[in-house]
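ok here's Acyl-CoA dehydrogenase, seq below lol
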Amino acid sequence: MVFPLDSLQDYQLMFKQEHEMLRKSVREFLEREVAPHALEFDDKDEVPREVLRKLGEQGLWGIGIEENYGGQGGDTISAVIVMEELSRVAPPLAVIRGTNELFSIPILLFGSEELRRKYIPPIARGEAFGAHAMTEPCCGSDAAGIQTRAVKKGDRWVINGRKIFISNADIADYMVVFARTSEPQPNRRWFGITAFVVEKGAQGLKIGTKFEKRGLRGSHAMEVIFDDVEVPDENRVGEVGMGFIIAMETYDRTRVSVAAQGLGMAQAAFERAFQYSFQRTAFGQYLASFEAIQFTLTEMMAELMTARYLVYLAAYLADQGKEEFKYVASLAKFYTTEVAEKIVSKAIDIHGGVGVIHETGIERFLRDVKITEIYEGANNIQRVVAFRQLLRTLTKKGVISQDIAKSIT
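and the structure came out like this:
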């Protein structure tokens, strides 16, 4: 055993020629069609629908979704490549795509075939957008504490409650909504939450306040209010009372996408700082001539390459069906997003005063990357999740006894 994985083979990364072809094609498209307008997304806090349509024409919304559900196919690595490249140019586009994943994955994993056939193809083709409504005023990382309620009346459920910070809610055609359908059980506080698909325009569904945030502008965080919203039982995702498990299984898979967001921003900042060091002169020399700049760039490069390895290792393990991908994804999420903040900050330092001028386009990455450390499980929560997932995996393998694991968690 090469602890905490089993063998050296578990640490390998295997990329296919198609992965590199995908990366190149996505980068070329984004540099040509999106990069010239990326600052406008931040200035106006809006991504034009025309841009979203063009991404759909490129098939970027359907990467990672099986062809029989209208997608382009591709594995987790492919999806991570797209997320990294989107974040390198325009992070809000990655948020919109990542929120689509938060809608699609629970349906693909736990939904009925009818739900998959109805809701996934429009998402994959870019004809519709999804949202994921979990967070409430009372509860962020504490998903088990949500207070939105769903009561069964005949063959329908009636939902009442309020959600906040819901990405995509203003453009979403459908959203996965989590609501408590029964009281938690002793020692099973998470039990009693159920997931439902709610469609845009449902009676009693109101999209409320848009929260004015300073990062990831162009992707909106919204308030969503449910006032006696009725949904048919066939729109229930998975078993009654098991919504928390559905959410956690979803986050295990989307977490690596958030790590990829941080990676893309770090990549952009490093590239710009490196290029600037060979353009700007001081005291008659290029900045790159100074040892302090060389040290800084080298440290940034080491952090970037380490982060990249963790992100793609998590994706590779997921594609191999390895249970270990879950704690590696948590490691990648907290490590990469925090490293990205450091790299962006160092890039600003190298640019000096130019680095904090909005038109340069670097300072926005610092505002953007900070949010990735908070959403989809704040980073300190990821440290806890990674440890518990590791314990769970080692318990299954018999390395740690169940009694000891229970006493710790």
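fwiw The domain at 8-129 is CATH 1.10.540.10 (Butyryl-Coa Dehydrogenase, subunit A; domain 1). kinda neat tbh
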